[in-house]
Amino acid sequence: MPPKNTQPKYRQIADYLREGILDGTFPAGQPLPSEEALAKQFGVTRPTVRQGLTELRASGLVEAIMGRGTFARSPYNRPSFTYPRGVRRSPDGQYTEADGIRWTDAEKPTATRTDAPLALADLLRIPPGEPLFTYDALQTADQGYLRQLHRTYVPFSVLLGTKYEETPPPPAPQLYNALAELGHELHFTEYVRTRMPLPDQAQALRLADGVPLLHVLRVTLTTAGKPLTLEELHLPGHDLELAFGL
Amino acid sequence: MPPKNTQPKYRQIADYLREGILDGTFPAGQPLPSEEALAKQFGVTRPTVRQGLTELRASGLVEAIMGRGTFARSPYNRPSFTYPRGVRRSPDGQYTEADGIRWTDAEKPTATRTDAPLALADLLRIPPGEPLFTYDALQTADQGYLRQLHRTYVPFSVLLGTKYEETPPPPAPQLYNALAELGHELHFTEYVRTRMPLPDQAQALRLADGVPLLHVLRVTLTTAGKPLTLEELHLPGHDLELAFGL
Q1: Helix (H, G, I), strand (E, B), or coil: what is residue A22?
Q2: Category of A143 on φ-ψ map: left (φ > 0), alpha (ψ -120 to 50) or beta
Q3: Per the CB 3.0–4.6 Å rule, which of A49, A170, B198, B241 could disulfide with A174?
Q4: What pLDDT score was predicted for residue B2?
Q5: Looking at beta carbons, which pairs linking B121-130 to residues 24 or more positions away fall under 8 Å?
Q6: Which chain B residues are closer than 8 Å to A196 by Cβ?
Q7: Domain residue spans in chain A?
Q8: Are A187 and B245 inside 8 Å of each other by CB?
Q9: What is the DSSP string of B124-173?
Q10: Which residues form the HTH gntR-type domain (chains A, B) (predicted)?
């Protein structure tokens, strides 16, 4: 007799489905067995099956599509989108994004003035509380399939005594050419983090349950290593990868 | 009279705590109000409070520490560890990791032979199923606080007709010097992805609930852009960031 499985039934169901998704029994993009079939197979009620499915949804291994059922997602598939990170400089000195993605603003971007919070002041090497021009944009590409939240921060101190003291400069990437005009040669460092989205981020980026964010911070620096500006990107962690040349 | 909140109570509790964590009412690293206090405040039973806390744990905003209670985590804090990604070449031609972290193997690394799965064959530009030398290591640094899963893949075809055909080469980063000895000049591309961990990864990396993985794939290429080897890193998405010079 095989040893008795002492796990709760909903977890046994989650384990059974997880193993099936990982070994290809339930291929990515295909529907899982129905709740009814699973309830019968494990001798449980449908709420118990649903509890097992909830656990898998939270781990990003299945996706529930309204009115169509529950579909397997493979953690091994290569993402459809590769997002090359970098900034190019053309022979005429213009800076452009190396990503080759045509982002468009899904909503009118907002420009505000914020005070530098501690964690950002640190990256910009300015005193916490220093005022910043802040631009927020929700951008889409590829017919809305790709979405990102893009924020640009420009410390007032960087613009002191320049023509942008009165009229703020454009947000990145146009910002780079404005900075170049002020005589800066630009260098870039990116910091990549991840975490689960906050509810408003999950909604704006249309994230399914169990999909974390990629959080990218780009610092623009002078040749001497002085930070000038900061950008924050929040991207869906599903079906997307960032690419960096080392 | 304020409009009646129609959300279920457990969600109202989760929203209340989330807002408090985000606005600093419940500072990062500090304990949240007790289950008892929350039950009283919202007029609910403790299981309902726990349901609200479970939701916040899944989103990585609180951490339950056995026997000590539930603590707030800020999504805004700068991580304690910055992990610079890159490979340096010393004047004598030796390749070394630029991370400056002293990783040690927590367990004896395992060497196996695997067949290239589709998603990796694609990155290595070899036919799916081609045999690979595969090394697996669980590595720790900083007195065990930092943990990573490190896998190195070397296609047999890269070693054909070399002295490593019989005795496999060492895993990365020593591998780089073995490849350099074979006459290759090396270039590196990294792909960064994220997702929720599988149960064995969560255990090996000691991840709390609601903490995603950073998944890094490093491809080592020749000057002509031919992929030679592949490394896979799985890192905790908590309290850690990757840094890239663009």
Answers
A1: helix
A2: left
A3: A170
A4: 56
A5: B122/A78, B123/A78, B123/B191, B123/B217, B123/B219, B123/B227, B123/B230, B124/B153, B124/B155, B124/B219, B124/B227, B124/B229, B124/B230, B125/B226, B125/B227, B126/B155, B126/B157, B126/B227, B130/B155, B130/B156, B130/B157
A6: 58-60, 210, 212
A7: 9-72, 81-243
A8: yes
A9: HTS-TT-EEEEEEEEEEETTTTEEEEEEEEEEHHHHTTSGGGTSPPPPTT
A10: 7-75
- What are A145's strand-pairing partners? none
What tokens were used for B62? Answer: 């609180």
Nearest CB to B190: which of A189, A196, A244? A244
**Which of B77, B95, B195 best tests the A interface by mutation, with the highest count of A CBs <10 A?**
B195
Per-residue pLDDT band at A3 (split at 50, 70, 90) = low
Contact B189 A243 (CB under 8 A): yes
Catalogue the E-assigned strands of A106-169: 110-115, 131-141, 146-155
Q: Closest approach of chain B CAs to the CA of A1, in angstroms? A: 27
Distance of residue B67 Cα from the nearest chain A Cα, in angstroms: 23
Write the pLDDT tens digit of every residue in A183-238: 999 999 999 999 999 999 999 999 998 999 999 999 999 999 999 999 999 999 99
Distance CA A186, CA B16 (A): 43
Q: What's the pLDDT at B205? A: 95
**Which of B102, B123, B8, B124 minimizes the C-alpha distance to B55?**
B8
- Distance, CA of B67 to CA of B49 (rounded, Å): 17
Residue type, B200: D
Q: Which fold has domain A9-72?
A: Arc Repressor Mutant, subunit A (1.10.10)
Mean pLDDT of chain A: 91
Complex ipTM: 0.91
Instruction: State in words which class domain A81-243 has.
Output: alpha beta
**pLDDT per position as a tens digit, A145-158:** 899 999 999 999 99
Residue A33 pLDDT grade (very low, low, confident, very high; cuts 50, 70, 90): very high
Nearest to A192 among B187, B218, B241 (CB): B241
Cβ-Cβ contacts under 8 Å, A85 against chain B: 244, 246
| CB spacing of A117 vs B76 below 8 angstroms | yes
Mutate to test the interface with A, among B18, B122, B185, B192 (most CBs of A within 10 A): B192
Size of interface A-B (CB pairs under 8 A): 129
Q: What is the pLDDT of residues B18-40, one digit of tens each?
A: 999 998 899 988 999 999 999 99
Read off the pLDDT of each residue in A232-246 and give the average, rounded to a whole number.
94
Q: Do B246 and A18 touch (CB under 8 A)?
A: no
Residues of chain B scoring pLDDT < 70: 1-3
Q: Distance between CA atoms of A180 and A188, rounded to whole angstroms? A: 13
Contacts of A197 in chain B (CB under 8 A): 59
Is A82 within 8 Å of B191 when comparing Cβ atoms?
A: yes
